[in-house]
C-alpha cells in the first residue's frame, strides 16, 4: 500500500452493504459477493439492520409479498402476479415462502446457507454491525463463525479503497 491509501498491486475490491433479511433479498449480495470473489475481487460484506440476520447460524428466511408488487411466480405455465393487498392476509407470507423454496429446490439453485459457506471458503470478509447487534440485542454466539464485528468506520475503511460499492 502506497502513501495516500493507493493499492499498488491493483487488486480489485468490492463492498456490499446487506440491509435486508428476507429470502429473496438474501440472494443478490451472496451471489454477487461469491461471484466477485471467484473472479479474484477482494470482497467485504457489511451486514446491518435486518440484513444482520443473514449471519445467524440457524436461518428461517421468508419471502414477503407485501410491498413487493413486482413479485410474480411461475404457475400453471405462466407468470402470475399477486395483488399487493393479498400480502396482508394471514398465511400468505408462509405460502409465498414455501412456493419460493420449492422453486429454488426444483431449479437446483444453491441455498443461502450454501452461498454463505461459499463466501466463507472464498475468503469474503463478513462484518456484523456492532450497533445493530446492540440495538436488536443479538449475540455473536448465535452467528456463524468466520465473521468479524465492526461499525460503519470498519466498512468505510474498505469502501474508500473499493472499486465497487453496493447497497442491498
Write the layout of secondary structure elements.
Layout: E1 13-18, H1 23-38, E2 42-47, E3 72-75, E4 78-81, H2 92-106, H3 112-121, E5 125-129, H4 130-135, E6 148-150, H5 152-159, E7 164-167
Parallel strand pairs: 1-2, 1-7, 2-5, 5-6
Antiparallel strand pairs: 3-4
Helix pairs in contact: 1-3
Q: Cα distance, first to last residue?
A: 29 Å
Enumerate the spans where pLDDT stays under 50 for 5 or more consecutive residues: none
Report the count of strand segments. Answer: 7
How much strand? 15-25%
- From the coordinates shown, what is the CATH architecture of the domain at 14-58 and 113-167? 3-Layer(aba) Sandwich
Helix content: 25-40%
Largest sheet: 5 strands, parallel
> Averaging pLDDT over every residue, what do you get?
86
Helix/strand structural class? alpha/beta
Coarse shape: globular
Tell me the Rg in angstroms.
18 Å
Oligomeric state of shown chains: single chain
Count helical runs.
Answer: 5
Spatial strand arrangement across the major sheet:
6-5-2-1-7
CATH topology of the domain at 14-58 and 113-167: Hypothetical Protein Ychn, Chain: A
The SSE string, one letter per element, is EHEEEHHEHEHE
Keywords: Membrane, Transmembrane, Transmembrane helix
Transmembrane segments: 30-52
InterPro entries: DsrE2-like, DsrEFH-like
Protein name: DsrE/DsrF/DrsH-like family protein
